[in-house]
Amino acid sequence: LSDLIDSLYRGLLQGDRRSAARLITMIENGDPLSIGVVKELHRHSGKAQIVGLTGLPGSGKSTLACGLAKKYREYGKTVGIIAVDPTSPFTGGALLGDRIRMQELAGDPGVFIRSMGSRGALGGLATATNDVINILDAFGMDVIIVETVGAGQVEVEIVKYAHTCVVVTMPGGGDEIQAIKAGILEIGDIFVVNKADKEGSSRTVADLEMMLEMKPGFDEAPWKQPVIQTVATNSQGIDELHEALDNHWRFLNETGKLEEKTSERMKAELIEVLNSKVSIAASKALSEDPKCREVLTRLIKREIDPHSAADQVAKYLIKGASQ
Ligand SMILES: Nc1nc2c(ncn2[C@@H]2O[C@H](COP(=O)(O)OP(=O)(O)O)[C@@H](O)[C@H]2O)c(=O)[nH]1
Ligand SMILES: [Mg+2]
């Protein structure tokens, strides 16, 4: 290991925040050196409760994350917050509000907050986020909250494999519920109706509860997803949300579901990394390897189809990898 990697690795394990911050920046910038540290740190991870927080923009996820972090601190737990926003890098305007909101927590050594954009991340945002989760885990954070905008596939993928997935919605017409219906209902372990100070909150809660009860297998399910009303701006309902998160963590531990979830999580993480490695290797081979270029040429001439071409390229890649 190079001196830099070694010092970052040791700094991080000793609780040095600057090492952690620097390493995360390296990951975000796609610095290949960071992978060396990520590899070394992996065996120190695996203790944290990973909480996914997803929902439409403006539903109050960041405000909730801050409220939760404060609550966890009261119980002496350390908290990492990762705000994933692929549409804006972490210096961008959209996250400035989050930053100001999070400033109260910024002086607390038991809290580590980081925003992630997709800028330059090696192997994509999901892989970079997983790397950062593992780093904060090895850094010793007890709880890691990952906030993602519940709109795109990548963001949903990121929270789907959290230990506990919290879906945040707010009152106002049926639109939010409709958006939730499109798949997010399946991934939520806990549902939050935030902005309960606004009109229509109890209606939204009732709608959600009804939709959950209508799901096949609801009666036999060992975990009944609670629907919690919150007003994140004045910490109303944060106690209940904190309790629900603790209950779910206990449920996972006591039923053996934690191992199941962790296996799924590791598998999904491995597939992410594999996907990006294969994709990078394929692009490289198609521009550099004469045999693969020939396959491409034949495809362009329509002598073969994309499926057969992909099979052939895959064969060359596998041969190359096993050498
Ligand atoms: N009225 C009301 N406003 C809230 C509540 N929670 C958050 N907000 C406001 O809603 C806006 C969006 O909140 P934010 O946490 O940034 O949402 P995010 O995009 O989901 O992270 C901010 O102006 C918050 O102050 C709430 O419970 N009630
Ligand atoms: Mg936010």
Please tell me about this protein's structure.
The chain has 323 residues and is α/β, with parallel strands linked by helices. It contains 14 helices and seven strands. It has helices at residues 3-13, 17-28, 33-41, 61-74, 96-106, 124-138, 153-160, 175-181, 184-187, 201-213, 238-255, 257-288, 290-300, 306-322; strands at residues 49-55, 79-84, 111-116, 143-149, 164-169, 190-193, 227-229. It has a seven-stranded parallel sheet with strand order 3-2-4-1-5-6-7, sandwiched between helices. α1 (3-13) packs parallel to α3 (33-41), α6 (124-138) runs parallel beside α7 (153-160) and α13 (290-300) packs antiparallel against α14. The longest helix has 32 residues, at 257-288. Mean pLDDT is 87; it is low at 89-94. Bound molecules: guanosine-5'-diphosphate and magnesium ion. Magnesium ion binds at residues 61-62, 83, 98, 147.
* Fraction of residues in H or I helices: 55-70%
| Model regions low in confidence, pLDDT < 50 over at least 5 residues | 89-94
Task: List the ligand species.
Answer: guanosine-5'-diphosphate, magnesium ion
Order of helices and strands: HHHEHEHEHEHEHHEHEHHHH
What topology, given as strand order, has the largest sheet? 3-2-4-1-5-6-7
**Total of helices:** 14
Radius of gyration: 22 Å
Please state roughly what percent of the residues sit in beta strands, choosing from under 5%, 5-15%, 15-25%, 25-35%, 35-45% or over 45%. Answer: 5-15%
Mean pLDDT: 87
